[in-house]
Amino acid sequence: MGRIKVLLADDQELILESLHIVLSMEDDIEIVGLAKNGEEAVQGCHQFQPDMVLMDINMPVMNGVNATALIKERMPIIKVIMLTSYQEVEYVMAALSNGAEGYLLKAIHPRDLAAGIRVVHAGGTLISQEMASKMIKSMNTGSAIKNNEYGLSSREIEILQKLASGMRNQDIAESLFLSEGTVKNYISTIYSKLNVKGRQEAARKARDSGIMND
Questions:
Q1: Which pTM value belongs to this model?
Q2: CA distance 65 to 50
Q3: Per-residue pLDDT tens over the stretch 57-75
Q4: How does pLDDT run across 110-155, given as a tens digit for each residue?
């Protein structure tokens, strides 16, 4: 069998070089390209045709989740493992829903990272034990979101909470890996369900009815 061709995407030069050195020591792994943002990762996939991308999440120009979505849309045969320091469940869900086959934390031992690359290359899906535990806990607690009389979905409540905190539509979109247009559609639906005309009125009504906490 040939070597597993891997493209590395991370905006930190030290991380890129460290991964390059460590993974190049594996006989069956070949680093074919480096990218410092999501846009470069997409371009690198076109140029180098890797088997897999190790993708950071928080990068300039284009984040890793959006880059993953583009790669899976254009080149679905390429597998993606998110390699990040983010431990929030929403990032895992966003990554997996956009096609990533793995989600690992940067604290992983190099030997385990190489093993994970082999697992995903062979067709498996891999999530770090820490993140799997958090996902199970989140599901068991219903994401800590209360049932509500207005029929708001968990995503709508999540956006409502961010609205109430003063976040702009663009910031909400970036934090949830959605387009700004999608966020605006959610907000219109929220206003309609709550029968309100603005974010302050919506936040006040949600608090008064117990949908969300202060």
A1: 0.69
A2: 18
A3: 989 899 898 899 999 999 9
A4: 999 999 999 999 999 999 888 888 777 766 655 444 456 777 777 8
CA distance 179 to 170: 8
The residues, ordered by sequence, that sit 6+ positions from 197 with a Cβ below 8 Å of its Cβ are 191
**Triad 118, 80, 85: Cα angle to 5°:** 95
DSSP string, the chain: -PPEEEEEE-S-HHHHHHHHHHHHTSTTEEEEEEESSHHHHHHHHHHH--SEEEE-SS-SSS-HHHHHHHHHHH-TTSEEEEEES---HHHHHHHHHTT-SEEEETTS-HHHHHHHHHHHHTT--EE-HHHHHHHHHHHHTGGG----TT---HHHHHHHHHHHTT--HHHHHHHHT--HHHHHHHHHHHHHHHT-SSHHHHHHHHHHTTSS--
Residue 171: beta bridge partners?
none
Torsion of CA 170, 160, 38, 4, to 10 degrees: -170
CB 163 within 8 A of CB 173: no
